[in-house]
Amino acid sequence: MTGRVFRGSTHFRHCALRFNFNPTRIFQRSGLDEIGVSAACSQDRMHIEKLEGELRNCHQEIENLGPSSAKLAAGTSQDEHVKTEIEKMAKQIHESDLVNQLKEELREVKLKAKEEAEDLTQEMAELRYQFTGMLEEESRRRALVEEASIRRVQDLEAQVQKEQQKSITALRHFQEVNKLAEKQSMEIRRLKTALERLHQVSGLESSFESCSSGFCNIKQNILDTEAPKETEALGFVYANNEVDHTLEWHPDEATYDVEKDKNIGFQGPRFPCSNNRDTDENPLARPPSVGPHEVTRWVLVKSPMAWPRKC
């Protein structure tokens, strides 16, 4: 406190000397009463003197307290060092506080990032589940489509096989019908040829001489064409100098073909006679046994026959 007073008085004096401070002059210029001013100045002078006395006492006390002031100065230097240390510690504390604050902020950011990552993981899991469901549904749909297509292909293959079997059966039936029609046409041609021959033979009968027994061998030279494969049913019966013939058609009993007929050639009909000399001499002229339909089958021989003669 004494230091403050001393510093204040010295500052006041310095300012008065610098600015030529003269209180009497100031009061004269202001026109105040000199008595009042002098009384005020005396009071101020007394107060200043009092303060100067206190200042002297303070200086004496300061001189008496010289060693303690040195200690105080050393203490102040230590205090400054301590202050610097304190400031450093404060800075460190502040920095540590900042570090802790940053750590807290980093922890909060990590927590937020972790929560966001968990949310993203959950969303990805949901999307994966949705994609899995969609893929399973798509695979199921494809399996159903594939199964339906396979079933359709199998049905079409079965239908194609059925149609093929039907076509094969129809083709076989058509071939059989063609064969049967060919056989029937051949048999019809043979029968027509036989009928024509019979008509020709019956036409020549009127010019032949009748035998005493009523049966004769007739030479047939009027047909120079080749005979058909086989005549299934051919019968000639003479009664009262008239020709009575019966024809039947049995395609299942046909055993000859055209080539055999070509090799054998046309063989004229044989007629029964009381004299079996020709049949004994030529065994081919003998008639075969009677068939199941009780129709007499006559064998046609290749050798020419003589004109009608008496048996």
| Average of per-residue pLDDT values | 65
Taking all Cα atoms into account, the compactness measure Rg is 81 Å
Number of strands: 2
Q: What does the overall shape look like? A: rod-shaped
Could you give the order of the helices and strands? Answer: HHHHEEHH
Between the first and last Cα atoms, what is the distance in angstroms? 200 Å
* Unreliable sequence segments: 1-6, 209-311
Beta-strand residue fraction: under 5%
Q: Please estimate the helix content.
A: 55-70%
Query: What is the makeup of the main sheet?
Result: 2 strands, antiparallel
- Strand arrangement in the largest pleated sheet: 1-2
User: What is the structural class?
Assistant: mainly alpha
Number of helices: 6
SSE layout and pairings?
Elements: H1 2-18, H2 23-30, H3 34-64, H4 66-204, E1 235-239, E2 242-246, H5 258-264, H6 277-281
Antiparallel strand pairs: 1-2
Describe this structure in words.
The chain is mainly alpha-helical and 311 residues long. Among the domains are: 2-64; 186-285, no CATH class. It has 6 helices and 2 strands; from the N terminus they run H-H-H-H-E-E-H-H. A two-stranded antiparallel sheet has the order 1-2. The longest helix has 139 residues, at 66-204. It is rod-shaped. The model is unreliable at 1-6 and 209-311 (pLDDT under 50).
Brief write-up:
The chain is mainly alpha-helical. Helix content is 67%, strand content 3%.
Keywords:
single chain, 311 residues, mainly alpha, two-stranded antiparallel ribbon, 6 helices, disordered N terminus, disordered C terminus, coiled coil
